[in-house]
Amino acid sequence: MGNEHQQNACEVERWGLFEITVAGPSEGNPFQDVQLSARFEHKHRTVQVEGFYNGEGQYKIRFMPDSEGQWSYSVSSSREELNGASGSFSCVPASAGNHGPVRVRSAYHFAYEDGTPYRPFGTTCYVWTHQEAAIQEQTLASLRTGPFNKIRMCVFPKRYSFNTNEPERFPFEGSQAEGFDWTRPDPIYYEQLEQRIVQLQELGIEADLILFHPYDKGHWGFDRMDAETDAFYLRYLIARLGAYRNIWWSLANEFDFMQTKTMDDWDRFFRIVQESDPYQHLRSIHNGTKMYDPSTLVLYDHSKPWVTHVSMQYWELSPTNAWLKQYGKPVVVDECCYEGNLPQRWGNITGMEMTARFWDGFARGGSVGHGETFLNSEEVVWWSKGGELRGESPARIAFLRQILEEAPGHAEPIDRLRDAPTLGVEGEYYLQYFGIHCPAYRELPLPEEKSFRIDIIDTWNMKVTPLEGTYKGLSRVDLPAAPYMAIRAVAVGEEQ
Amino acid sequence: MGNEHQQNACEVERWGLFEITVAGPSEGNPFQDVQLSARFEHKHRTVQVEGFYNGEGQYKIRFMPDSEGQWSYSVSSSREELNGASGSFSCVPASAGNHGPVRVRSAYHFAYEDGTPYRPFGTTCYVWTHQEAAIQEQTLASLRTGPFNKIRMCVFPKRYSFNTNEPERFPFEGSQAEGFDWTRPDPIYYEQLEQRIVQLQELGIEADLILFHPYDKGHWGFDRMDAETDAFYLRYLIARLGAYRNIWWSLANEFDFMQTKTMDDWDRFFRIVQESDPYQHLRSIHNGTKMYDPSTLVLYDHSKPWVTHVSMQYWELSPTNAWLKQYGKPVVVDECCYEGNLPQRWGNITGMEMTARFWDGFARGGSVGHGETFLNSEEVVWWSKGGELRGESPARIAFLRQILEEAPGHAEPIDRLRDAPTLGVEGEYYLQYFGIHCPAYRELPLPEEKSFRIDIIDTWNMKVTPLEGTYKGLSRVDLPAAPYMAIRAVAVGEEQ
To answer: Do you know which InterPro entries this protein is assigned to (chains A, B) (predicted)?
Structure first.
């Protein structure tokens, strides 16, 4: 937190948040009537950043510097009294654990802006920030000890099965009973959200923020605002949140279930986000679909240039290789059913199946998102409200994450071995996953010219068993003929 | 066996086998040089049947009568000495257990010709009749106590992993070392095959006979005979085997892996079989495919008029509903991977997974085939050679078969309930299967106007738990939130 809200400080760390607060008029509707922005300059570069009204006569401009050294700024506004302020700060090296925002590094990979590899191990708590404070604190405690480095979460509240409690505050002034003022965002709502985003940042968790969703059906009306309000909402949101380095923009959850929006609307929203965000945070969109009927699957065309990566809901991971090739962008299967016991098909797979889907998706070069849906008497279900994790998969996801953190950052699916999905770097590293398949042995076609150490990995029991000796060329590897096994082969260094 | 080979007997049971044996010339090549046939007449009907040369100067004509009453026949031949024989017999009612050949009864169903419903519970022992006699007897013993009522088996021997022993006899005279005489079938080979087909018939098992396959690659050359030999082979085979009521014609196994045959060849083979078989036994063809890559899936167009039902290799059962609609014919997923521990992906699923695929496919209105591939020191692997069954799925398949034998014969997939595959008859019967899904409860939308008894079925532990009382309308059914459960709801009779 130390450096997160510095005004006119001498020093801001790289990818930290520099904030200017100025007093100004509060009459009329400053949210819409007052234009405010700042020019930030560093050497040859200029970055134009929009400010926002924070209520009570307070205006703010937030900025995330991405280069070390001296930055200067000057403020301009449609209102004389806000115009002309200027200053400077020094951008110093990032502190430990701050690697910058996550970027797409290649057709397969993400990395933090400082080059550190990033593999998404996401979870889903759609409206955890709309619950009472004690539950929010419990969610943070669960995340602190959990394996996740990304969370999908909504700006708007959600009304759905096991989730019908009315939140205290909303992105707009008003309430369900009294209606909303679509011209006045609620700054307190946003300040509370921002606090949670900073807390996620401290835990090393990316906030994959969902900007629209269909779980409203007119109850509040956030799913059917007019085009002007949609655009106003997006610009205000981005002015407030864009400078937090751990933000991703998920344009929607189950976009195709929103009957009031067209494909043109989604294109337009993408362009607004792309134009408004000075930092070009990651952008994607998540599809709904009848999960039991692939013929109804509706996808947004992720090959469009403003989509940075593929966000997918699908219950099989086998198409991952094909999606990677089709779109030429990293693939995140953000939803593949949830571990739990709901009556609904998407919410009642076992921890074993969830774990298998994670391994399958990662071995195919994609990444996979988690969610949990166990019924409980408090009706606090993780996937919606956060709270406690009860399932068997998070410990296994932590184990997988550890295995992959030991893998080369540039590992890709190895096509020649794809009868069992294999992630690797030819000549260096192979991680082959068998899922439900139970071979008594496998013949692994390793390169002839190098020696490899081989481990058998029991992905469910989280056990790594190294084999004796080293292997080269076509190598028979005996296996326990049980499900959920993997083989890892790592080239032995020159010194061996 | 009693009625299977009757010559000029006074009585033959319906769908039994009536056989005429006549002596004739043995010089030259009677297999190809001598034309022999008979006209069978019953009331207004005439059936023309081809005979065949059985070696040693012996000629035979076989006939399966399908109507009770008096039949007469007259023999004609290109050779004077075989010409003109005539006679008659009386076709009497079928004995117990003889329901006639299996027919397609509707877009979803098979039935025996006497109307008894038939659901295929197939297994696969490709070349069990090419093994030494002791193994063949062991296979029959396994089948006797097993759950299967169909077996996929090849006319030609097979050369493949775990299957490289040379058989003693072949469909043509000769051997691999000396070559084959493509103009002379080996009658002793066929007599041995026929004995096995009759033994299967006694066990109530349909012989789904595979006429071509690619597991030869020129070793013997049965996969690359010329067009004339292909046609001669088919006509001879059909003349010999067509009168056995438990024969099905599977044009090929993995037809698309036979690089010497074209789609036109397969059409031609279908038409030869269709024209030559007086009994119109069931006809289909089985696809190969790269099992790990759906994009390489090549299907024969099962909508062609000479295809009676869909025979499919696929490792997922979820498309079953779509195939049923697409083709308007019963769907048999003859291969969906095998229970076992081979290194190959298609041969190493668990018994639990095999059982789940059976339930899934049947609940979707199709049927599913079994195979077993456990490595063993004798190298007698069920899927290829028969022998012993070692797996965990056959007992569960028997349990499923019993459940389905208690179901209405005309049960079809219920589309309105397809978020979990459901087989049933609206208002009468519902069988809903959850597979890997673990709901803690389900709300089953039963009709309002009838009462139903409900059972919870644990498909793996083979346990049926009846619920107390009766249900109508939208009914909450509590479940153990464990995988592999099913719900059965049966309408209570009027007298209740």
So the answer is: Apiosidase-like_cat_dom (IPR025277), DUF5060 (IPR032260), DUF5605 (IPR041239), GH (IPR017853), Ig-like_fold (IPR013783)
Using the beta-carbon criterion (under 8 Å), do A438 and B294 form an inter-chain contact? no
DSSP tag of A94:
P
Residue among B357, B295, B288 at smallest CA distance from A436: B357
The domain made up of A11-92 has a fold known as Immunoglobulin-like (2.60.40)
What token pair was written down for A259?
Answer: 């009957």
What are B94's two structure tokens? Answer: 């079928």
Element (H, E) at B178: none
B437 to chain A, any CB pair closer than 8 A? The answer is: yes
Residue B341 and residue A438: Cβ atoms within 8 Å? yes
Chain B hits for A434, CB-CB cut-off 8 Å, are 348
The beta-strand segments (E) located in B125-198 are 150-154, 172-175, 179-185
Task: Give the pLDDT band of residue B152 (cuts 50, 70, 90).
Answer: very high
Residue pair A205/A150 in contact by the 8 Å Cβ criterion: yes
Q: Which residues of A touch B342 (CB under 8 A)?
A: 439-440
> Which residues in chain A have Cβ-Cβ distances shorter than 8 Å to B340?
438
Q: Please state, in angstroms and as integers, the Cα–Cα distance from residue B5 to each residue in A67, B12, B20, B191, following that order.
A: 93, 9, 9, 12
For A349, which of B349, B437, B441 is closest by C-beta distance? B437
Q: Does any CB of chain B come closer than 8 Å to the CB of residue A294?
A: yes
How close, in Å, is residue A63 to chain B by CA atoms?
47
- B297 lies within 8 A of chain A by CB: no
**pLDDT (mean) for B155-165:** 95
CB contact under 8 A, B342 and A439: yes
Name the architecture of domain A102-405.
Alpha-Beta Barrel (3.20)
Cβ A348–B438 below 8 Å, yes or no? yes
A444, A436 contact by CB (below 8 A): no
Average of per-residue pLDDT values in chain B: 95
The reported pLDDT for the residue numbered A5 is 44
pLDDT tens-digit map of B182-217: 999 999 999 999 999 999 999 999 999 999 999 999
Answer for the pair B82, B75: CB distance below 8 angstroms, yes or no: yes
B17-47 pLDDT, tens per residue? 999 999 999 999 999 999 999 999 999 999 9
Query: Which chain A residue is nearest to residue B480, measuring alpha carbons?
Result: A341
Indicate the class that CATH gives domain A417-491.
mainly beta
Place of tokens 């009304």: A159
The answer, for B23 touching chain A at a CB cutoff of 8 Å, is no
> 303-362 in B: which are within 8 Å (CB) of A?
318, 322, 340-345, 348-350, 353
ipTM value, please give it: 0.89
CA distance B334 to B391: 18
pLDDT along chain A (496 residues), means of 10: 47 97 95 97 96 97 98 95 93 97 97 97 98 98 98 97 94 97 98 98 98 96 98 98 98 95 97 98 93 77 97 94 94 98 96 98 98 95 98 98 96 90 97 97 96 98 98 97 98 68
Contact between chains at B442 and A483 (C-beta distance less than 8 A) = no
Question: Any idea where the domains of chain A sit in the sequence?
Answer: 11-92, 102-405, 417-491
Domain B415-491, CATH: 2.60.40.3950
Q: CA B283, CA B489: separation in Å to the nearest integer?
A: 35
List B453's β-bridge partners, or say none.
B490
| Fold match flag (B102-405 vs B415-491) | no
